[in-house]
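Progress narrative, work stream C.
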Amino acid sequence: MEIRLSTKEDLTAIDEFDIFLGNRMTEIERGELWVALEEGKIIGFMSFNDQFYAHPFVHFLNVRKEYRRRGAGAALMMKFEELCKDKERIFTSTESYNLPMLLLLDKLDYKCCGVVDKIQKESEIIFCKDLNSED
């Protein structure tokens, strides 16, 4: 599996399975979107930046349904950690009903650090992982 920074040429393939609102082109242009490829096919993507109170935050993680539970999500999250290795702490979030993501975050040692209610139908759970803490 290859993980690389996304390019404008990837947008059509990403649009085939993108379940999130928004325009991925903006993230591509900012250098904030990474893709997972298997045999040259884009099977997943991750978008992150450091706009969450000046901390790195994964906003979107999505894998094509037919490629789920094969390690693409974990590979993208580990790339996020590698790219942020000089940071003290990193963050992401998911809806309370998103069991696959909750299990992935647990497997990768992310810890719940808060819950936001009433922002959407389901609660949004915020997770963090300490990378270089003094604890």
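Work stream C, second folded protein:
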Amino acid sequence: MITIPAKDGYPLVGQLYASPKTTAKNKVLIINSATAVSQKLYHHYASYMAVHGYDVITYDYRGIADSRPKKLRGFQTSFMDWGDKDFSGVISYTKKEFPNRKILVMGHSIGGTIIGMTKKNTEIEGIINIGAQTAYYKDWNKKQRRKIYFLWHILLPWITNIVGYFPGKKLGMLEDVPKGVIQQWHNRRKHTDMKKQLENNGIELFYNAYQSKLLTLGIEDDPIGTEPAIQRVHELFEASNKQLEIIKLEDISIDKIGHFGFFSRKFKDSLWNKTLQWFDAI
């Protein structure tokens, strides 16, 4: 484990997967996690990329998993902190520890969305976003929309207001999540334009600053990261050299992937290899 100081000094717990000297490619890959998951979800993918020549850094956002304080009730944070403070700090740490190396990013779900919340994204040379979306509920899969809406916008806020944070681990629903994150997610539900909503609240965003390569990947059966959902984040990176692709289940002879399945080891020779080749080309 490593400790990475956020921009404001908050200690983030991370993990470094060092590449063997024999395969090193002079590149560092940062993995930005989804909202309520531990960095451990990405262990096998990070190990795979390390074997293939990348030094890889995973980390937990403040308030999540190993980066949470002992007492989560009353702990103040939001998605903006994850992007502006935490991810900014990880980029600075990477530049310091791995000077003169290309910085690449894999952003999963909110991990892709927060890339536009730091001005330091100009130091990144390639991004792959998977299922990155803005939490607008009408973008979700129609068949599962009511169920997801009930979970995210009725049950989670209700429990969070009672407990003071969302006790995901006790409920068997991923990690505990700070109240501010749940509130910000909940406030996103009816706004089609995330950028406009945040900027109207005085928040500065930096999507237009990023001018390097971007690959936005969607999964055909992802009920949250649908094509309309990921298109919203994709379009925010107006100045990037970008492409968007939807992964079809039949193309890899699989019945189900969903929002989290991409990081299963069964995809190392298909989906993982696809991302490896893309990063290799940078």
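The chain has one domain: 2-140+193-280. No further action is required on this item.
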